[in-house]
Amino acid sequence: MSKIKLLCLPYAGGSARVFLDWKNDLHADIELIPVELPGRGKRFGEALISDFHQLVEDIYQNIKNEISGPYCFFGHSMGSLIVFEVMRKLKAEKQPMPMCCILSGKNPPHVPLRNHIHALDDEEFLAKIFGYGGTPAEMLHNQELASIFLPIIRSDFQAIELYEPPADREQMDCPFVVFYGTEDPYVSTDLVKEWSLYTTSSCEFYAYSGGHFFIQEKREQVVEQVNSVLDGIRATL
């Protein structure tokens, strides 16, 4: 039996490498495919994309050859929103849908962001970014690192802050699994449950103690649950 492909989309400012340390802990029948966004990692030489729907089109074009055979998505924060919109694109193009979709650290599409920060000056913007956690402290003190990092994360925040959700709350014929941190100030423990409005299938929820980057704080538990979810999918094949 073929492996299940796990296509992983990172958070704002992140690259595909944030998932690389999952590889040794995922079960042998799971093929990890970290998806790189333009302007970072192995795509560093490419132009950043600050329009959300153009970004989705870019990711769709880059992953459409990976979706033969059984596959699942995992996205964290901005990655969850990208996954959702890529699924809408797959549905519109009558492409094979994933066996499941794991959405992590993000309110559902119709819940507006409380603050828009992408247009702040560098100092204010960095201060807000550090409020999310997950960003190395040396960014504050290393001008060279900041000069690389700031345009990437500012572009990502512009994309998600100007994102317009679908008016019809289009539903996917795909099981959803939703991860969230109980101390995440950017995700509502009540509103996150409304991801269930976007699927005609099941929608399961798993809470982790931790903030916005609970996938780092509770890495072992998160990867263990990903294994469990995909084991359940394999049992249905």
TrEMBL record:
One Pfam family per UniProt: Thioesterase
Biological processes annotated in GO: lipid biosynthetic process
SUPFAM superfamilies (UniProt xref): alpha/beta-Hydrolases
Ranges annotated as spanning the membrane: none
Start and end residues of each Thioesterase domain: 5-228
Domain of life: Bacteria
UniProt similarity note: Belongs to the thioesterase family.
Protein name as annotated: Surfactin synthase thioesterase subunit
